[in-house]
């Protein structure tokens, strides 16, 4: 295949992935709507059926042969998960095609469009990988909606034609540094979503909203807090490796300095400090629940501002090339991620 054919395939695969994510979102929203017809006691059992298990709800057919409300919810959950898997497969094809379209072939992390499409792919894959382990059926619409929205933003506003890597990016450190940063970003995003749901469920308290519909399927506050903590505990050392180890080494290779007080470097360190505080507070002071969830969301805000905001608002960052177009002569710049 020619480079142009690979690029066309990548663009078509992104469109197919977006369509599949949209269908998955509609299916999961229909699943949430169907949960309103399920009794509070039964709602928690439906999730097991959606994960491929059996539940009392799914095992009790109606007398006229139609699906019970519980069976409909379980069916929609399985369908949404399947369509999300298909979307992630198309998403992967888009990334592979993007890299193969370059001459020479390269990893698809050369500009903000490519970073964003890769980052959303990692969020989707991590969700799918952890779906059964943590019973994440309650998180499905949030994850799919986030991936779809971010992917649309990338296609509409960030898309650029495939180009060879710029000289400053043509390094094996691109793979090491960016892979770690994107994996950590995906995990922090999932952990932030769990923290957000924790706050929503805590606010509902013992009211009727907490025992009806979608909220009835959400795990109890202790389990939610534990899920968020485990995901953040995984992401933090990966982020540390990306920000405090591989990033400075690559900076020294490109600029002959380990630290340049670049805005993106500073914000990456701020993100590291916030998440370090989150984990330290939980481990030493027993700072759990609402306060920990708020701190996790602050960390997520700094993370995504660093990922996208710096590229729009900073005129001095040497990582901002992806939004500014051609690099100014004589300035070596590292990737926007």
From TrEMBL:
Key words, A-Z? Cytochrome c-type biogenesis, Membrane, Transmembrane, Transmembrane helix
Which InterPro entries does this one have? Cyt_c_assembly, Cyt_c_biogenesis_CcsA, Cyt_c_biogenesis_CcsA/CcmC
Q: Name one GO biological process term.
A: cytochrome complex assembly
What is the membrane topology listed in the Swiss-Prot or TrEMBL record? Multi-pass membrane protein
Q: Which Pfam families match?
A: Cytochrom_C_asm
* Residue spans crossing the bilayer: 12-35, 75-100, 112-131, 138-159, 171-200, 231-251, 266-285, 292-313
Q: Which GO terms describe its cellular component?
A: plasma membrane
Q: Does the keyword Transmembrane helix apply?
A: yes
Quote the subcellular location field of this record: Membrane
- Domain of life the protein comes from: Bacteria
What region holds the Cytochrome c assembly protein domain?
109-314
Molecular functions (GO terms): heme binding
User: What protein does this entry describe?
Assistant: C-type cytochrome biogenesis protein CcsB
């Amino acid at each position: 295949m020619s480079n142009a054919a690979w690029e066309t395939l990548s663009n078509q695969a992104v469109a197919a992935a977006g369509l599949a994510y949209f269908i998955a979102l509609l299916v999961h929203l229909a699943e949430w709507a169907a949960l309103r017809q399920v009794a509070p006691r039964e709602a928690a059992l439906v999730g097991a059926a959606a994960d491929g298990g059996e539940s009392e709800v799914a095992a009790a057919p109606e007398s006229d042969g139609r699906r019970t409300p519980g069976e409909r919810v379980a069916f929609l959950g399985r369908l949404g998960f399947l369509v999300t898997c298909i979307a992630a497969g198309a998403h992967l094809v888009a990334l592979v095609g993007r890299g193969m379209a370059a001459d020479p072939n390269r990893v698809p992390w050369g500009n903000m469009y490519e970073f964003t499409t890769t980052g959303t792919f990692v969020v989707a894959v991590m969700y799918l990988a952890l779906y059964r382990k943590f019973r994440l059926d309650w998180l499905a619409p949030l994850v799919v909606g986030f991936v779809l929205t971010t992917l649309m933003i990338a296609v509409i506003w960030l898309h650029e034609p495939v180009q060879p890597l710029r000289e400053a990016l043509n390094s094996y450190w691109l793979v090491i540094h960016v892979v770690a940063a994107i994996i950590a970003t995906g995990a922090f995003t999932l952990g932030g979503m769990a923290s957000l749901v924790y706050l929503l469920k805590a606010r509902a308290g013992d009211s009727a909203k907490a025992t009806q519909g979608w909220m009835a399927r959400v795990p109890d506050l202790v389990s939610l807090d534990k899920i968020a903590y485990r995901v953040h505990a995984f992401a933090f050392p990966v982020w540390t490796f990306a920000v405090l180890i591989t990033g400075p080494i690559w900076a020294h290779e490109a600029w002959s300095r380990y630290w340049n007080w670049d805005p993106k470097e500073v914000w990456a360190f701020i993100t590291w400090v916030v998440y370090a505080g989150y984990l330290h507070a939980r481990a030493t002071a027993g700072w759990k629940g609402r306060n920990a969830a708020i701190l996790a969301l602050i960390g997520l805000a700094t993370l995504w501002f660093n990922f996208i905001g710096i590229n729009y608002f900073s005129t001095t960052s040497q990582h901002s090339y992806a939004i500014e177009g051609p690099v100014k002569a004589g300035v070596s710049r590292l990737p926007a991620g």
